[in-house]
Design a protein that fits this description.
Layout: H1 10-24, E1 30-32, E2 45-47, E3 51-55, H2 64-84, H3 86-93, E4 98-104, H4 111-127, E5 132-141, H5 147-155, H6 170-179, H7 181-191, H8 200-227, H9 229-252, H10 257-275, H11 281-298
Parallel strand pairs: 3-4, 4-5
Antiparallel strand pairs: 1-2, 2-3
């Protein structure tokens, strides 16, 4: 993950989407189209209800414009394949008339891509293909199209969660800090007890780091709550269990404050991997820092 973006390899993305599609449809209703022998003809799978699917993961990080250009090129290339491989697709699709050709991508951010999709839809309709529905339409979608299936696979441990955790914007960070002065003061009081940040400059840097990590972790939790409610419940329960023992452990330990802080983070990281093993390490790290900042602000973690 770079700058909050999940970095997808094309093969891994295709495998992930194929898993989700296989779960979405009843047995026999979805057919993958292997591409090792003479190519995929512009589709990587189709369903009996008239959907054709193609996967594409551009090499990140990319700007919005660069991402649009890559995805636009993918649509152009594969729709041309869809049109030009008439005989092969007639044989592959049989009686299925494709109504929706869906490009599945990790993210898309430009309405111009939808304009291009509309132009390509009209191009296919004009070609009069026997395997294209009269209202053939090109669509662009992300994994959110399969939120239910992804949650089921994630809960079963068969799918790793890859949720972006973006840095909070400076304006939001400033506004949040002004509205939560009391919590920040609590954190600052405890930071001053850490031997490793003895100077005011280091204390300020750590405070700002923890606030950012807290807000970034909150974003991950919110996405998890929206998309994977069962996994969110597991994370929340793991955090609750760790918090129960914090006060007692900080009272009886003779370790320096910085060692106590490091130990609590490592303990929670281990508990996350034990109870929610399908959260990737970057996200588990984000969740542990969110918890540490939260505990420092609200006082469950004290020294």
């Amino acid at each position: 993950m770079v700058n909050g973006l999940v970095m997808w390899d094309g093969t891994a993305w295709q495998k992930r989407i194929q898993m989700l599609l296989s779960l979405r449809y009843q047995p026999g209703a979805y057919q993958p189209v292997p591409d090792r022998h003479k190519g995929d003809c512009g589709i990587e799978g189709f369903s009996s209800d008239g959907n054709a699917y193609q996967c594409f993961a551009a090499q990140e990080p990319l700007s919005t414009v660069a991402l649009y250009q890559k995805q636009r090129g993918k649509i152009t290339t594969d729709i041309n394949k869809f049109i030009n491989n008439k005989q092969r697709l007639t044989n592959v699709l049989g009686s299925v008339a494709v109504e929706f050709w869906i490009l599945l991508v990790p993210r898309f951010e430009s309405a111009k891509l939808l304009e291009h999709a509309t132009a390509k839809s009209l191009q296919v309709r004009a070609a009069g293909l026997p395997y294209a529905h009269p209202q053939f339409t090109v669509r662009v979608a992300t994994e959110e199209l399969f939120a239910k299936e992804a949650a089921a696979l994630a809960c079963a441990g068969a799918l790793k969660l890859n949720l972006p955790h973006e840095e909070p914007e400076a304006t939001f960070l400033g506004k949040w800090s002004q509205e939560h002065v009391g919590l920040i003061n609590n954190m600052e009081t405890k930071i001053k007890k850490l031997p490793t940040v003895a100077t005011p400059e280091k204390q300020l840097a750590l405070r700002d780091f923890l606030i950012k990590r807290y807000l970034s972790g909150q974003n991950v939790l919110e996405l998890m709550r929206e998309r994977y409610s069962e996994l969110y419940a597991l994370v929340a329960e793991a955090k609750r269990r760790r918090e129960i023992f914090l006060a007692g452990e900080t009272l009886v330990t003779a370790a320096p404050a910085d060692q106590t802080l490091a130990r609590q983070r490592e303990l929670f990281l281990t508990e996350l991997h034990d109870s929610v093993g399908n959260v990737v390490h970057d996200q588990a790290e984000a969740l542990t820092w969110e918890a540490i900042a939260d505990w420092l602000m609200r006082c469950p973690l004290d020294f």
